[in-house]
């Protein structure tokens, strides 16, 4: 999930899962909360209503017929008890058959209810406040008495908000917990996929061997299989292309050998004054031969060509000792002084490819440093235990603008007249990539000449990496 | 000196035959391994130059056949394949040297001379390089009949260079073979002996090259 691509909103698996999981969960929590709230608040309401009804009945029991007159026997102390409530204001009223107020608050009107039935509860507004009112009626010999007992809704509101809080808090906590679990759970669940994408990302672009699908989750297996099918096709077509290149280069060599031999013989036949033309032809043939060889080297440095040359522990000093004599002659032919300074430098790789790499480095230095230049090749192990190979010359160096491009295939520096195919450094780069080696370049003006250094990974680090070596 | 070339490409074959003929060798040419086997059965050659990619029986099988028959003539492989294991395989089969096509004639002739020289040194204990005659048995050298006066160390160096030519004698190997118990020669001392030897071998058609960091090489001047 760390790469910018994976974070794109439209394709984020995490976001999709979060939305898909959390939206229904939120809805469910809302519905269940509503239902709980309704049930809990109506239970509380019923309990409060019971109390209110009891108060109304108690009030009604205080009505007595005294001297033929209806009267409310409600001494101030009893009224105080009835009206006492810590939270709410209480109102009461007792009215006679003609609606005359027998006692209590004049602005409270009992509803017209049937005598003897349980108190009827209604919501009204009194003195600008919402009030719950219980109305009750009793039939007396003197006529119908109506009683009303009312209280403000503070207790009820308080109870409702407590119920709401009691329901809301756990539900919100559950939602938050789910969000957190899903958010990080998805990351953990996607870890194998991330590992897979890292594995793909860390693989050199030229490495097109199938991915290892062993640790991939079941769900991603079809993806890996599809990628591997694609890689297989790619490998097959690349292999076919390389095979063609390799074949073509080989096929070129025999006719080139014939041509070169005949030209050399023809040159011997001619008087020295006329030899120069043939000599140029021989040189041109040599360049074609060199190009064929380099195309072969490029074809062979491809990862899928690994079957062609064994990977083993080799020593750069040995590779130099075996090829140095040929390189010396190539330099000598251009009047370049080639020296060696070798120390044992073990690495795991292909001796043939490393030989090509080194030879191309020298050819490049010899060609661009020019006649009378000095070229030095060194091998050794650096302070990090890594084998290195370097070629230094005292030529004009490489302009900063061209340092990246000189490793491209067929790139030739502007105005360059030195003979070359433009493939030498591309081969250096390919072979280095193949061995996971890094190529660095120092040049004028901050270095007296030009120094190309190839640093190979330490042999131990490479040994642990079994599946995707060269 | 008689050389057998086994090569199926007509142009290359013609070039080889002509180049060796001009260099003073007698050359027989075979276009297939089968004809080469017949030729080898009846004629004694000093060198066989064999192409790997032959029709039907290939060059590797031919070399195997030659060594199985107990023939000890030096064999030089000429191949369009330069992969290392191809080279190693060829040399393992009993070939003495390996050259990749296309080749330069002077190098081919130098390698051929070196192969013949080494195989003859075994039988006659004499080596000829350029105008130089080296008699390994008598530990003496002369150039065109004029004896060259060499010290023991100079002789050892020349012998080693001549036997290894045209390859490089690593400096360390030179140091080891010239040093004896309790008398380790420094590379500087070797350099002094080599330059003295160089001075004595002027005008012999040879050059002793110092490849700094690698060693010494005896070159035959064309």
Automatic annotation (TrEMBL), chain A:
Q: What class of enzyme is it?
A: transferase
Principal place where this protein is found?
Answer: membrane
Record's CDD domains?
HATPase, HisKA
- Stated EC number for the protein is 2.7.13.3
Q: Which residues cross the membrane?
A: 134-151, 163-186
Q: Where in the cell is it found?
A: Membrane
Q: What UniProt keywords are attached to this protein's entry?
A: Kinase, Membrane, Phosphoprotein, Transferase, Transmembrane, Transmembrane helix
Q: Which GO terms describe its molecular function?
A: phosphorelay sensor kinase activity
List the GO terms this entry assigns under cellular component, sorted alphabetically: plasma membrane
Q: Where is the Histidine kinase domain?
A: 247-460
Q: Which Pfam families match?
A: 2CSK_N, HATPase_c, HisKA
Q: Which PROSITE patterns match?
A: HIS_KIN
Instruction: Give the residues annotated as coiled coil.
Output: none
Provide the catalytic activity annotation: ATP + protein L-histidine = ADP + protein N-phospho-L-histidine
Protein name stated in the entry? histidine kinase
Automatic annotation (TrEMBL), chain B:
Q: Where is the Response regulatory domain?
A: 2-116
Biological process terms in GO annotation: regulation of DNA-templated transcription
Task: Give the DNA-binding residues.
Answer: 124-220
Residues that the record marks as modified (4-aspartylphosphate) are 51
The protein's name is Transcriptional regulator
Q: Name the SUPFAM superfamilies on file.
A: CheY-like (SSF52172)
SMART domains for the chain: REC, Trans_reg_C
Q: Which domain of life is it from?
A: Bacteria
Keywords, ordered alphabetically: DNA-binding, Phosphoprotein, Transcription, Transcription regulation, Two-component regulatory system
Q: Where is the signal peptide?
A: none
Cited Gene3D superfamilies: 3.40.50.2300, 6.10.250.690, Winged helix-like DNA-binding domain superfamily/Winged helix DNA-binding domain
